[in-house]
Amino acid sequence: MSETGPFACDGRMGPLLLRDGSAGSPPPPDTASSGADGGGGPAEPVEHVLSRIWSTVLGLPGLDRGQGLFASGIVHVLSVLRARERIALALRVDVPLSTMLQCQTMAQLARSVRASADSVEKLEVRAWAVASLAPLEDAEWVRAVTALETEAK
After folding, report:
1. Does the first or last residue of the chain, that is N or C, have fewer Cβ atoms within 10 Å of its Cβ?
2. What does the DSSP 8-state code read for residue 25?
3. What is the DSSP letter of 6?
4. CA 64 and chain centroid, separation
5. Running DSSP on this structure, what letter comes out for residue 74?
């Protein structure tokens, strides 16, 4: 693993580098809605959509809003890129890769997504629409999210 970057030679995330802040300073912890640890399930639609995206990309059941995204050390850089692509499709927000790597929890990522959005109000409406979709396989989910876009036109 490189001492200067957050990735191992095989593309996996380096959890120690991410935890010690070498990949950048993460946003402050979210304490507004669920205590200092930010634990619990998704608190609102943006977090719900992000949780579903990460769960699908990582092949894991629902993720808690305070759960460390990179704590397992099995997250591959391609998983981050795939999640970033899904976020852009679902929420129409382009989150910089550096921001994705800095956000350690779902709650932090949701705040960063809101900060990257052109309109938080439009983001919330879009998030509600995407969050209301039934659980689907990945390809079906992409088609359903794309269909939401064409229905809105």
Report:
1. C
2. P
3. S
4. 11
5. -
Q: Which two tokens stand for residue 69?
A: 């995204």
pLDDT digits (tens, 9 = 90+) for 45-85: 999 999 889 888 888 777 777 777 776 665 778 889 999 99
As a whole number of angstroms, the distance between CA 103 and CA 63 comes to 14
Around Cβ 77, how many Cβ atoms within 10 Å?
16
Note the helical H segments in 23-76: 45-58
Structure tokens at 42: 């998704």
Q: Helices 45-58 and 106-116 meet at what angle, rounded to 10?
A: 120
pTM above 0.85, yes or no: no
CATH architecture of the domain 15-152 equals Orthogonal Bundle (1.10)
Q: Indicate the domain borders of the chain.
A: 15-152
Query: In whole angstroms, what is the distance from residue 130 CA to residue 39 CA?
Result: 23
